[in-house]
């Protein structure tokens, strides 16, 4: 209201303010009757903005040479990505699906796996003779050994998992070659009548498999082949070769 004019008296101003207060109250009453409280979720048509923090030394990996990686994320998800020098990443998307997809991709490019982390609904990418490979983050695979698939003894990996199946897993170890070992059974309750000790014994009675790397090549040093001229002696006896 313009109060600089000399043509408005104090009484006119007072009445105008009272009328505006009453009008404001009526508008709020109509709004409350239409929508008593805020919506639990945003409208599917409302834009979303999510802010992540990534290590500064990972900024280059997300951007890529000449912006190649960040453009690919935008093309694959439809989300707009903005990165600041301090590692702050803003993800601007038109819906939840594109935002979540962009977050997963960026996490997969920057997150360092830690023992104890849990990943939900990860997809089985490969089946090996000694376990199942799962993609716990985009572009990052880990091994669920056959002994970690279930509390009960598992004869064949295919009895529990097939390519394309999903499962919840927990990181239980990372070896010196940065290979990630995961467990499915760590997130499962022990079946009635089968305690943890019996569960471990069930797996131990299964056929022993040589641990190999993720490309299928067996690791470890080759063992010497014993012949009739090579044997182990008992205490106090020499070993002949």
TrEMBL record:
Listed EC numbers: 2.7.7.8
Keywords for this protein: Nucleotidyltransferase, RNA-binding, Transferase
Ranges of residues in domain S1 motif: 116-185
Annotated GO MF terms: 3'-5'-RNA exonuclease activity; polyribonucleotide nucleotidyltransferase activity; RNA binding
Coiled coil spans: none
Biological process, per Gene Ontology: mRNA catabolic process
InterPro entries named among the record's database cross-references: KH_dom, KH_dom_type_1, KH_dom_type_1_sf, NA-bd_OB-fold, PNPase, PNPase/RNase_PH_dom_sf, S1_domain
CDD domains, sorted: KH-I_PNPase (cd02393), S1_PNPase (cd04472)
Name of the protein this chain belongs to: Polyribonucleotide nucleotidyltransferase
